[in-house]
């Protein structure tokens, strides 16, 4: 880095950001690899149904196909919003 | 024993054809009998990089459709007589390739006593790329230290371990290597570019070589002389190292450090 660069302040280390972003997306895509094609659609439809009743986040649903001995298990986790958050949303809807 | 090597990447423009040409020339320079095949049907380019574009009479698709013999379609390199190029068709589309046809051509090359067949894959994950990797014993995944290239490479690594003949028949898996190209040590040092260790850590496979970003690469393709033959180019030396490693030699990684600067350029930047 030259003197003028130094005076301008050090640049942001974008390589670190790239590495972090890749680490996450690659792990996510590897876990989805080999799982059935219908999972993304199932996830979206489930989210729509749940959202009719509870206001959950886009990424509140986690679906995974796991192996348990001879059979496959569809593992579904839905994270519900905490009470305070839900109350706030309800209040906002009433307003 | 013939070894089928696919040079692939998923993403386009990362240096697959440049790498295929230099690896093929490097193997031939070690005395191996080598064929290098362009699988990019409709977008032929390996012939230009190898400098034999005006000698293409018959192509890969002609051989597959039995419109000529394999011998007629193989173009003998002017520099190394044990090196042959099989050009892609420029007029057909990628559906002209069939799994049976590709297998027949590869088997014929094996019967002709070739040591290595280098398959230059097209970009993407469609038919041409699929067939280029399907019969591979070894895969060289060309990757730039850049987010989209790394992500696509991971996708390709997944396909190599599921959609190849070796995966389908339960044989020993395809041997996988990374070849990092367009590496810029100055930018890595500045924190603007992912390092070899970063890429290796994300993808989790061994690095066969690191080819520095170099003016020599464009000059080589302009001239139709694979860059490995340029004695004055660091990229050429890096390919030479990678080929030696492929043949089992131990070569330390070079060109990972930024060139040292003088005191003036240190002070004022360059």
From TrEMBL, chain A:
Transcription regulation among keywords: no
GO biological process entries: cell division
Superkingdom of the organism of origin: Bacteria
Gene3D superfamilies tied to this protein: Cell division topological specificity factor MinE
Entry keyword annotation includes Cell cycle: yes
InterPro entries: MinE (IPR005527), MinE_sf (IPR036707)
Keywords: Cell cycle, Cell division
Family: Belongs to the MinE family.
NCBIfam families with a match to the protein in the record: minE (TIGR01215), PRK00296.1 (NF001422)
Task performed by this protein: Prevents the cell division inhibition by proteins MinC and MinD at internal division sites while permitting inhibition at polar sites. This ensures cell division at the proper site by restricting the formation of a division septum at the midpoint of the long axis of the cell.
HAMAP family, sorted: MinE
Full protein name: Cell division topological specificity factor
Gene name in the database record: minE
Automatic annotation (TrEMBL), chain B:
Domain of life: Bacteria
Entry keyword set: ATP-binding, Cell cycle, Cell division, Nucleotide-binding, Septation
Stated family: Belongs to the ParA family. MinD subfamily.
Residue ranges of domain CobQ/CobB/MinD/ParA nucleotide binding in the record: 5-227
Keyword Oxidoreductase in record: no
Subunit-level organization: Interacts with MinC and FtsZ.
InterPro entries: CobQ/CobB/MinD/ParA_Nub-bd_dom (IPR002586), MinD (IPR010223), MinD_FleN (IPR025501), P-loop_NTPase (IPR027417), ParA/MinD_ATPase (IPR050625)
Main function: ATPase required for the correct placement of the division site. Cell division inhibitors MinC and MinD act in concert to form an inhibitor capable of blocking formation of the polar Z ring septums. Rapidly oscillates between the poles of the cell to destabilize FtsZ filaments that have formed before they mature into polar Z rings.
Name of the protein described by the UniProt record: Septum site-determining protein MinD
Source organism of this protein record: Tahibacter harae
């Amino acid at each position: 880095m030259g003197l003028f660069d130094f005076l301008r302040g050090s640049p942001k280390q974008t390589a670190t950001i790239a590495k972090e972003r890749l680490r996450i997306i690659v792990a996510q895509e590897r876990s989805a690899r080999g799982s059935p094609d219908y999972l993304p659609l199932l996830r979206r439809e489930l989210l729509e149904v749940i959202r009719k009743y509870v206001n959950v986040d886009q990424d509140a649903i986690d679906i995974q196909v796991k192996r348990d001995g001879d059979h496959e298990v569809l593992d579904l986790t839905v994270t519900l919003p905490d009470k305070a958050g839900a109350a706030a949303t309800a209040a906002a809807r009433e307003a | 024993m013939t070894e089928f090597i696919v040079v692939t990447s998923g993403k386009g423009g990362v240096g697959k054809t440049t790498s295929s040409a230099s690896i093929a020339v490097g193997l031939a320079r070690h005395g191996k009998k080598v064929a290098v095949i362009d699988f990019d049907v409709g977008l032929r380019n390996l012939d230009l990089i190898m400098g034999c574009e005006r000698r293409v009479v018959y192509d890969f698709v002609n051989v597959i459709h039995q419109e000529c013999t394999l011998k007629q379609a193989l173009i003998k390199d002017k520099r190394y007589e044990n090196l042959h190029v099989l050009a892609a068709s420029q007029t057909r589309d990628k559906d002209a390739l069939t799994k049976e046809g590709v297998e027949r051509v590869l088997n014929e090359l094996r019967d002709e006593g070739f040591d290595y067949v280098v398959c230059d894959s097209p970009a993407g994950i469609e038919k041409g790329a699929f067939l280029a990797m399907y019969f591979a014993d070894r895969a060289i995944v060309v990757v730039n230290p850049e987010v989209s290239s790394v992500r696509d490479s991971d996708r390709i690594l997944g396909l190599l371990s599921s959609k190849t003949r070796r995966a389908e028949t339960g044989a020993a898996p395809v041997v996988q290597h990374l070849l990092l190209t367009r590496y810029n040590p100055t930018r890595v040092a500045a924190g603007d570019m992912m390092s070899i260790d970063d890429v290796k850590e994300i993808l989790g496979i061994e690095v066969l070589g690191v080819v520095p970003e170099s003016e020599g690469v464009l000059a080589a393709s302009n001239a139709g002389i694979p860059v490995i033959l340029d004695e004055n180019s660091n990229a050429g030396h890096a390919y030479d190292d990678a080929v030696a490693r492929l043949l089992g030699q131990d070569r330390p990684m070079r060109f990972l450090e930024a060139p040292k600067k003088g005191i003036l350029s240190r002070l004022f930047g360059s």
